[in-house]
Amino acid sequence: MNAAIVEKPLTYEHDGVKLIGFLAYDDTKTAAGKPPGVLLIPEWWGLNDYVKSRTKQLAELGYVAFAADMYGDGQTTTDAGKAGQLAGQFYGKPLMPERAKAGLDALLKTGLVDESRLAAIGFCFGGSTVQTLAYAGAPVVGIVSFHGSPMAPPAGVAGKVKTRFLLLNGGADPLSTPADNAKVEKSLKAAKIDYQSVSYPGALHAFTNPGADELAAKNGLVGKIGYNDPAAKASWAAMQAFFGEIFRKN
Known about the structure:
Strand order of the largest sheet: 1-2-4-3-5-6-7-8
Number of helices: 8
Helix content: 25-40%
Low-confidence stretches: none
Oligomer: single chain
Largest sheet: 8 strands, mixed
Order of helices and strands: EEHEHEHHEHEEHEHH
């Protein structure tokens, strides 16, 4: 069935910035109908091979998957200082959900997806981004944040966010601590947002990325970020179960 997987870059634009995303889907599925669509937002390293591999995995599961380019021109880096600069322009600003929404719009414009069954997932920086996307009212029925820094609901959204949240975090993450997550979960409950939260014991930040140990060694982040195979597999399975719930047709 791998031969049925179509993979291709997709160029789009937001606010005058040229963006190059990555689209993947099983053409036997799209020929038979319109499958659910899944938007992916990368880690702060950008739209690299790791994120593309996750996009292809989603296509193999039967979804039309699109990895968004948040930085422009498909820019990537392995330097944490540079990544911090690139991602730093988004936190706390409307640009974060707006740039993600541009990716969702690009996915919709393919005409391949069931517009009533859309989800967004993100890793680290991307996990934070998909939370803000949901708060901004994007038409996604669910979001999955993999080791994303928790983002509290903004004022005025209580009772208005219909998107379901799945928050998958590392129990030993020093960058997004269990205490940080608990605080935001309290605010999610107050805002009447339907959420599930899972903490994986011993898992650091970036636990889903097989290249995290190498990146940690290069950037002085040993003990802060690292791959955790059991947590990576369990969290991916949790996402699949979640999709089974939110994409179920009545």
